[in-house]
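WARN  no MSA supplied for this record, continuing single-sequence
INFO  ligand: heme C
INFO  echoing inputs
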Amino acid sequence: MIKRFLVMLSAVVMLVSGAMFTVSAQSGPTPEQVAAAAADTRQALFKMLVFNLGPIVGMARGAPFDAEIAERNARRIAAMAPMITEVLAQDTRGFDVETEALDLIWDNMDDIAVKAQALIDNANAFADAAATGDQAATMGAFRAFGGSCGNCHDTYRVDND
Ligand code: HEC
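INFO  complex generated
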């Protein structure tokens, strides 16, 4: 009788610990999933940056100048650019994620912050010029603004331009 009880008890213990193992295995993403999500998030931020830069690039290439859109989009970029260091904080080196981010980013986070700040400053300078409505002054500030994107890509992104 006691023996049967013990057999049942051990069966129950095995069942419960099995269930606990399943729960702990499912509780939270794997490191690979965390890395993949981090890469998705940072790529989404950069997509939003280029989405806003697009109309400004168009103006630089001869589309009609629109001071309001120029200022609005540059301010948006200045507002989003502080997130660059945040989305790059997750080190995805060594994970099999789809990315164009170069490994040396994570040995140079101070420089990443400097380059992100340069983008913020140049986007604001461009927006300030656009706020005056002066086309020549605004587009004169474009080279530094757009250049702050390429300046980081040249060092920290896979060279595919
Ligand atoms: C401080 C560095 C830095 C700055 C500044 C920067 N980028 Fe990038 N950008 C990157 C890195 C790193 C990647 C690669 C991300 C990846 O593939 O995981 C990238 C990727 C991109 C991509 C590809 C996104 C995709 O579809 O995967 C676009 C588009 C882009 N950047 C646009 C811009 C624009 C526009 C600006 C300026 C307004 C800008 N970036 C400023 C570092 C930067």
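Residues 67 and 134 are 8 Å apart (CA to CA).
INFO  checksum written, moving to next record
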